[in-house]
């Protein structure tokens, strides 16, 4: 590769070029430099990669026709192919909690986790925790209607999580701290 570029004599009126001409000249220059780099790599024995890259990513499966498919169907097929239908349905329950349990109950509760058929629900007071425990059977039945029979086996309810109280100069030693007993 040579560092010398031939000088092109310019006349006095040639100082400015149109943008299209400048772009065409730049593209031609880029093609020439690319060809030089490839030739130099070939001389050194380092040709550009010809085999496909191994990035480990999943490739989309070819469809029967070239027509686009509806988005909802494509998502359903992806979930089915990956075995994610149940997780997506459970995530849907978390997202639609207010719609499933009603606005009043949703205002004081929220789903925390779901594992092995057990839904953990957090409440904002002990009164609402008691109410949810009383409604657990109805809640399990309603969730199984949404997710499929037998998906939710039990509901575990957590009351308000205030955490441990810090010890300080105005604390009674050995005291159990405030208790949320009246809601």
UniProtKB/TrEMBL annotation:
Source species, domain of life: Bacteria
Any Pfam family the entry gives: DciA
Compositionally biased region (Basic and acidic residues): 33-57
Record InterPro entries: DciA-like (IPR007922)
Coiled-coil annotated residue ranges, if any: none
Compositional bias ranges of the Low complexity kind: 20-32
Region Disordered, residue ranges: 1-70, 154-183
Protein name from the UniProt record: Uncharacterized protein
Protein's organism: Thermobispora bispora (strain ATCC 19993 / DSM 43833 / CBS 139.67 / JCM 10125 / KCTC 9307 / NBRC 14880 / R51)
């Amino acid at each position: 590769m040579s560092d010398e570029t031939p000088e092109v004599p310019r006349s006095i009126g040639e100082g400015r070029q149109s943008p299209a001409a400048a772009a065409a000249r730049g593209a031609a220059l880029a093609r020439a430099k690319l060809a030089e780099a490839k030739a130099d790599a070939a001389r050194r024995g380092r040709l550009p990669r010809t085999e496909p890259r191994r990035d480990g990513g999943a490739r989309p499966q070819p469809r029967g026709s070239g027509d686009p498919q509806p988005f909802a169907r494509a998502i359903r097929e992806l979930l089915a192919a990956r075995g994610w239908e149940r997780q997506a349905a459970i995530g849907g329950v978390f997202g639609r909690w207010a719609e499933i349990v009603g606005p009043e109950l949703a205002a004081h509760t929220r789903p925390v986790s779901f594992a092995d058929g057990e839904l953990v629900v957090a409440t904002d007071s002990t009164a609402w925790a008691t109410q949810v425990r009383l409604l657990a059977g109805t809640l399990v039945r309603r969730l199984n209607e949404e997710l499929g029979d037998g998906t939710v086996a039990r509901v575990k309810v957590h009351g308000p999580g205030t955490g441990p109280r810090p010890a300080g100069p105005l604390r009674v030693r050995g005291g159990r701290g405030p208790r949320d007993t009246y809601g």
